[in-house]
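2024-03-11 09:14:02 DEBUG pipeline.ingest accepted 1 chain
2024-03-11 09:14:02 DEBUG pipeline.ingest length=334
2024-03-11 09:14:03 DEBUG pipeline.predict start
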Amino acid sequence: MKITHGGDLFAVARAHGWDWREALDLSASINPLGPSPKVRTAVEEALDRISHYPESEPVQLRAELARLWDVGPENILLGNGATDLLHFYAREARHPKTTLAVPTFSEFHRAYPDADHVSWGDPIGWPDDGLLVLTQPNSPTGECMGHQELTAIAVSRGGTLLIDESFIDFTDQTSATKLAKMRDNVLVLRSLTKFYALPGLRIGALVGAQETIERLRPRREPWTVNVLAEAAARAAIADHAHAELGRSLVAAERERLLRELNELPLMIPSPSSANFVTLWTSVPAERLREALLEHKILVRVLTGMPGIEGEAVRVAIRKPEENTRFLGALRSIL
């Protein structure tokens, strides 16, 4: 399959001759409030350190994330975003059999091109052996599985379970990080890109049992987290007020967006617990994407992805005025 991503704002703006600031990018699902105001100050203060090598793996950030997630520093392996870590794990941890619960994040298809596929929504059909990869909440649909159900699956499995929780902070779901700490057959990917709005700096973590992480750590390339990313991440996770404000805004706007989208013809929004909504359309998704580009609005086409049946696009939840702009454009098109 062709691997595509959202968030190609600069290239699309350049191709159309736009000022990128005029475009509304709903193809990338990032916290609509952007990074904490404290991030800019932290990055500026860290500039004096860029003439020196960073730590091979930032110890202070690892300790602060351990407190945030209620695990030990020894349970965390940091990297240049969740994507960096998932590819690292795919290279270093060979499994005789790999299964993807689809639909899923497109990079898993690149990392495991020969994997079997099962339906994310049908756990009964999931295999017991080998590596099973799933996203929680599901990316790209935004659906969530109950924590108790996920725990029961992990406990009963004979193989390894890799859970991508890149969007978990936008939900009210319990993270599986503590489960990963206690069980050597569970690993959790966490991203600071989405919720803390740091995609341009790239930072993520792999959480697992101490023995598992200690086996992986020596194989890791050094300096995958630069000093600016480290400073930004530490400032972001310390700003609890900004985090709560972002979570509340997304919840309120998600409810409004789903309500108003349900009133429109030719499309059905899928229930979501994340900061994005999947729209199943009665018109070709590519045609809808092109029509929205006329309004300088970018959306993500999902049609053709494994696990996606029919025509669908994904749209990020943004600030109220941005969501209103999108709804207005959609009404005029339909």
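2024-03-11 09:14:41 DEBUG pipeline.report The two ends are 30 Å apart (CA to CA).
2024-03-11 09:14:41 DEBUG pipeline.predict end
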